[in-house]
Amino acid sequence: MSAANVLLADVGGTNLRLVLADAQHGVDHASLVSLRVAEHPSLEAAARGYLRAHGAKPEVAVFAVAGRVEQGRAQITNHPWQIDCTALRALLQIPRIKLVNDFAAMGASLAALSADDMAAIGPGLPDLAAATDGCFAVLGPGTGLGATAVLRRGGRWLVMETEGGHIGFAPQDALEIELLRVLAARFGRVSNERLICGSGLLNLYRALGEVRGEPAPALTPEAVTSDALRGDVLALAALERFALILGGVAGDLVLAYGAWDGVLLAGGLIPQLLPRLRGGDFRARFTGKGRFGATLERIPSAAIMHAQPGLLGALAIASMRAEVHHCGATAGDCA
Predict the structure, then answer these.
(1) Residues 6+ apart with CB under 8 A from 179
(2) % helix / strand / coil in the chain, to the nearest 5?
(3) Which of 29, 165, 197, 242 is 20 to 30 Å apart from 310, CA to CA?
(4) How many angstroms separate the CA atoms of 59 and 259, rounded?
(5) What pLDDT does 326 receive?
(6) Residue 288, Cβ neighbours under 10 Å: how many?
(7) Which stretch of 165-179, 181-195, 318-332 has the lowest confidence by average pLDDT?
(8) C-alpha to C-alpha distance for 170 and 177, rounded to whole angstroms
(9) Per-residue pLDDT, 77
């Protein structure tokens, strides 16, 4: 790959981030742009405008999208965009395109992260530089709740595309049973994503207000967070419960994936939640796994603090430092 002949895209339900890169010099930070998904009719239109503005003609592109990739197509889970690998290749005139789940790209970032890119939550940091084989879980709340398993085998990084954020919510105490009752009346099935993401925080806040019989005036997740910082009791309780449930979900994914080498939290909400995650509630629920409690106590957890881990992971995929494993006929390669 020659200089700046790689296009990387991190496609979420709210924002689209685009950047040019090459394998030798990495990401061209001056070319990084963040666009609002709602302001563009399609991914093709947004990417074509970006390439035209930068006078770029990349040979390779990796599109990390917030949805399940199947047969080279994806539907953004929390937005109407439908993405087709073949259409992207034809419209953008890029010879080789890879379409992957956004949290597969997040998981692939482990191949390039250093200790300086992580902040410990509990004892120690996951050892990403070890020569031995290992397994890690990566999850994070953003517009939705992403999750993936990352394997290190013989020096290779293998990333599993999963939709682990849509595992059903399992209440752990009397209050959470009541919260589930309220949310089930609204949604029917209640997945972890219904509580643990941006809109999930708002769902949690409103359900908590209903259970307590208290007004819940905040209209956005950002308002819940700012009200909590000002000392609002209901908003603060919602954030505390958010951290508690996130810890439980993280521990469950460790058990489900066999991620005995550590769990990493990613996503836009994590840096602002870090003080609360370190306050004890997250690790209390993370380790509260009955007969496996002692095992979970030894497993490190950390927050990914790199500014653009999804794009970092997309570059690792483009340069073959990490491979995305597709179960069944779900490959998103288009060449």
Answers:
(1) 171, 195, 204, 207, 208, 211, 241
(2) 40, 25, 35
(3) 242
(4) 35
(5) 63
(6) 16
(7) 318-332
(8) 9
(9) 73
